[in-house]
Design goal:
Elements (H helix, E strand, L loop, with lengths): L7 E4 L18 E2 L5 E2 L5 E2 L5 H10 L4 E4 L5 H10 L19 H8 L11
Parallel strand pairs: 1-5
Antiparallel strand pairs: 2-3, 3-4
Protein name: Magnesium dependent phosphatase 1
Organism: Papio anubis
GO molecular function, one term: acid phosphatase activity
């Protein structure tokens, strides 16, 4: 069997969903009675169609997942992760991070929860 990653980290905007959460949609978001997620204006908000299948497959293989984003709309991004039932890790913003930051400590800070697996270099 192929070697699996110890952690799959996904960006949010234009990776899980086809928009920038801080500019193309209007929080707060809600889930209607038919299960559709909508923004403040009533506009439907959707994931890319393949996302649920990919995440379910990773979960079935025992690969923990995390979300990472540079969005300024942290509350809206977290709300969408919850409404789409994608929360397995917590999304945090650390504006002081830069390219020279220690990636191992960044991942540890992003992903806290029962599915955490420390990443080895």
């Amino acid at each position: 069997m192929a070697r699996l990653p110890k952690l799959a980290v996904f960006d949010l905007d234009y990776t899980l969903w086809p928009f920038w959460v801080d500019t193309h949609v209007d929080p707060p978001f809600h889930k209607s009675s038919d299960g559709t997620v909508r923004d403040r204006r009533g506009q439907d908000v959707r994931l890319y169609p393949e996302v649920p299948e990919v995440l379910k497959r990773l979960q079935s293989l025992g690969v923990p997942g995390a979300a990472a984003s540079r969005t300024s709309e942290i509350e809206g991004a977290n709300q969408l992760l919850e409404l789409f039932d994608l929360i397995r890790c917590y999304l945090h913003s650390y504006p002081e991070w830069n390219e020279s930051s220690n990636s191992k400590s960044r991942v540890r800070d992003i992903c806290k929860g029962p599915n955490w697996a420390e990443v080895q270099p």
